[in-house]
Amino acid sequence: xxxxxxxxxxxxxxxxxxxxxxxxxxxxxxxxxxxxxxxxxxxxxxxxxxxxxxxxxxxxxxxxxxxxxxxxxxxxxxxxxxxxxxxxxxxxxxxxxxxxxxxxxxxxxxxxxxxxxxxxxxxxxxxxxxxxxxxxxxxxxxxxxxxxxxxxxxxxxxxxxxxxxxxxxxxxxxxxxxxxxxxxxxxxxxxxxxxxxxxxxxxxxxxxxxxxxxxxxxxxxxxxxxxxxxxxxxxxxxxxxxxxxxxxxxxxxxxxxxxxxxxxxxxxxxxxxxxxxxxxx
Amino acid sequence: xxxxxxxxxxxxxxxxxxxxxxxxxxxxxxxxxxxxxxxxxxxxxxxxxxxxxxxxxxxxxxxxxxxxxxxxxxxxxxxxxxxxxxxxxxxxxxxxxxxxxxxxxxxxxxxxxxxxxxxxxxxxxxxxxxxxxxxxxxxxxxxxxxxxxxxxxxxxxxxxxxxxxxxxxxxxxxxxxxxxxxxxxxxxxxxxxxxxxxxxxxxxxxxxxxxxxxxxxxxxxxxxxxxxxxxxxxxxxxxxxxxxxxxxxxxxxxxxxxxxxxxxxxxxxxxxxxxxxxxxxxxxxxxxxxxxxxxxxxxxxxxxxxxxxxxxxxxxxxxxxxxxxxxxxxxxxxxxxxxxxxxxxxxx
Lengths: 281, 348
Fold this sequence. Notes:
Chain A is mostly helical. Helices cover 73% and strands 0% of the residues of chain A. Chain A has 14 helices and no strands. Chain A has helices at 2-36, 41-45, 57-66, 73-104, 110-120, 129-138, 145-149, 156-168, 171-180, 184-195, 197-212, 216-221, 230-237, 247-277. The relative contact order of chain A is 0.14. The two termini of chain B are 40 Å apart. In chain B, the strands form four sheets. A six-stranded mixed β-sheet of chain B has the order 6-7-8-3-9-10, sandwiched between helices. Chain B is an alpha+beta fold. Chain B has nine helices and 18 strands. In chain B, a hairpin with a 2-residue loop joins strand 1 (4-13) and strand 2 (16-26). The chains are: A mainly alpha, B alpha+beta. The interface between A and B is medium-sized, with 19 and 25 residues.
């Protein structure tokens, strides 16, 4: 018995060693970025690169937030936030309604619509980006929040998720509501929505990060620095030609860009896991 | 409080007709149980009365008003579902109050009606709980409470007890009956359990393959089943069926002579068979196995031709040896005769 415990103990250590190594490998670049955001420009370009935080943390982050390179990072953070929230909430609203329609109503062409939605799964943003750009441009949505948000809202994935969830809701619930006198939209708002809240939370986390990390689309649709989102904005900070890159500020921006998704995950983790694991009955 | 009337009600799904014309008049305050095997259309019929299924043909009336085209909420009915269909995210109070809230009743009235129903169902201390935190019997009561607070003219029950364990089922059965009496409300109750049907019903409707085989008071249906299906379905263990030619005891010829003409099958309830000396017997067989239930004993007999018979005797099976030949008879008045189509032949 003692031998077994010892053996398991060793296994435990080895497992943890493996995990620690893994974390170190993944976290090291982030650590470097953080270090780079706390030192001065000359310190970065002079090898070897420092591995411990410098003393310019406050200055670098203040520079980044309030002046940035092209536009203050605070502005880009705000743009990204609006875009991510708009995409997440818009997608959830649209897919909830379309899943509701597909599951609970029998209308002509129901299957056709279902498959049309399904088809869009095969057409990610990148594939349809040129026609989408054309449409957005003609609507005058360049350099605007609607332009950033609307083309990315249509979502088959979320519609599917809610469809699957609605299918697990017993029919009797809808019938009981009908006997109770609830019209369809009332049933949707009073019963279906509250029952889907864990799914909504899980989806919100995923979609917020999806929206936050959008790169190609904002790059196309925004030309004015004021409308840049932070993920593409980092790229815009890179110098063109012979300009000197302000690496501490760029790195500070990178760190700032990582924070909101991390915060969203941290605060919604409990709901998120419940939404993925639990099927509430 | 209302009467319910069905006139030649039919239901078709696509081209298949599943309900072949049901006529039924339910008096005010009557408790009607629709009983039948699964797939006989009993739930469909109930759902047509509720308005959850459209009526393909015929007419459904509630309180003399044609309701074929009326939405469920406007039919003045309340329904209790098999799986209770409680709203999982709402407290017991909210579950019961939901219908009244939609109807736009004043808050004070809602609270009062819900509390009155909760008191009646002994749910007062659970009003703040979610359905998930309740036992099966309590959920069942909440579902009943949701129906009661609406003060409907007609109660509809769709197999409300089939998710409960046996002991609770007996208890809830009594409660449902008491409640219906107390409220004096018309009730339509669907079940596949013949014990529920026998104990609850003022009148029962035995359904088979979309037809009402017999409508009548439980004991009436039990004593004088209209068809072989009803005879076999109501009663446990079921009625024994024999061909007249199977009667081979010493007293058989006399009995055969007394059967009405056209008898293709006869039915004898297990409790009507008795052990008699060989010279008075109409039947014989050997005891295959016995089930002693305490107050009574079921004896399963094997007959020479291979079919089995069940008889029920009071007390314990003393003196009945396995495989010993047994001689049986039944009083002529208890024997039911059926024609070739399985319909009872009523002696004229």
